[in-house]
Amino acid sequence: MALSRLEKRFALNIKGIKHQTEWIEYTEIEKRSKELGIPPSEIKADGKPFYTIPSIYDSSTNTRISDSLKIIEYLDKTYPDTPQIIPPGTSMLNATLSWAVGKTVFTLFAPLYSSMISTMTPEASAILRSRFQGRVGMTVEEFRNDKALLAKIWADSEEAFRAASTWFKTSDGKEGLQPWIMGQDITLADLIVASALAWIVSASGGDESEMWKRVGSWDDGRWKVFWEKMKPYAIVY
Fold it and tell me: Where would I find the beta strands (DSSP E) of the chain?
């Protein structure tokens, strides 16, 4: 499950670009993308197209794009009078941050997937169950009953988030947000972190879920505070 799938929504809302969301079932992504003429996100090594979400169709330019980064690059270029999300010269920094955030958040892969699977359609649930078992090495039910493993995962994840929290501080340990990661303006770096937190919120069952409350409370509430700052830009239209 790509953490970046929500970056596009944040970007559209930050830029104030009017849009409408169409929801697609996990198992229908390729079929619906082809129906809408959305190009694949990439071509696999075996030559087969690979379709993902998010994707957009911009009627003002008759443009269809998939992949969050490509979409945001397009929006910055096509709508230059709106807030620019990707500052020049930050591609490598953003890629590094995206990788590091992904490593941190996916320490919670097992508990989050185990929660999310119960909300999926039977067909999508079967696919995710297979992915879960391949990665964790046991069924969802076996995992839910393994209290020792669950406790270790939570402990390891809290430590990973504690390490990530240091990224937001200066060398002398002071708070580094001013108020955003790169200063006064929201940039892709903020969207990367916010999208990861949004996935935790969504997969765990929402803002009131016990899992999110637990994560949000770590590091003196840093993650909840950051998410609350970004929530206004997560509105679905």
Answer: 42-43, 49-50, 55-58, 63-66
Q: Residues 131-149: pLDDT tens digits?
A: 999 999 999 999 999 999 9
What is the Cα–Cα distance from 237 to 223, expressed in whole angstroms? 25
Q: Which tokens sit at 105?
A: 């958040």
Q: Is 149 exposed, middle or buried (0-12, 13-18, 19+ CB in 10 A)?
A: middle
H or E element that contains 193: helix 188-204
Give residue-wise pLDDT tens across range 73-83.
Answer: 999 999 999 99
> How far apart (Å, rounded) are the C-alpha atoms in residues 231 and 114?
25
Whole-model pTM: value is 0.93
Q: How far apart are CA 164 and CA 173, in angstroms?
A: 13
CA gap 64, 70 in Å, rounded: 11
